[in-house]
Write a structure and sequence with these properties.
Length: about 130
């Protein structure tokens, strides 16, 4: 039995042709919208949290461990003096919003070595998160 053919002699069916699923056989298109409908690219996820009021007696490793307990960290950037001593604050970027939200809920006002941590989302994160 010969293969099914659609209009114009192209192979029939939604998965036919070199462009893949729903591409009408045209390579290079990324969606069912075709050549006249632009693809939507979602904005990057904003998940950066300010972590402040870190007591000078608290090692960076302890702060990082607390932050990691809330979610997977993309980047932890403790701010330091030129001498290498901590300035008592930093910025934590989480892989997803869940980690950022969890840290805000669980670690804000947490007392460590007599000082309460202060966690705040940056403006972009605040717009992204619903809390």
């Amino acid at each position: 039995m010969p293969p099914m053919r659609g209009m114009g002699g192209m192979p029939a069916g939604p998965f036919a042709g070199p462009g893949g699923p729903m591409m009408g056989g045209r390579p290079g298109f990324q969606g069912a919208g075709g050549p006249n409908i632009p693809l939507t690219i979602s904005p990057p996820v904003a998940t950066t949290v300010y972590v402040g009021k870190i007591a000078p007696t608290v090692p960076d490793a302890v702060v990082r461990e607390l932050l990691e307990a809330c979610g997977q960290i993309r980047k932890w950037n403790p701010v330091k003096e030129p001498s290498g001593q901590s300035k008592g604050f930093g910025f934590c970027e989480y892989v997803d919003g869940e980690g950022a939200l969890r840290s805000l809920r669980l670690l804000n006002n947490l007392k460590i070595d007599g000082q309460e941590l202060l966690l705040k989302p940056n403006t972009a994160t605040q717009k992204y998160l619903v809390w």
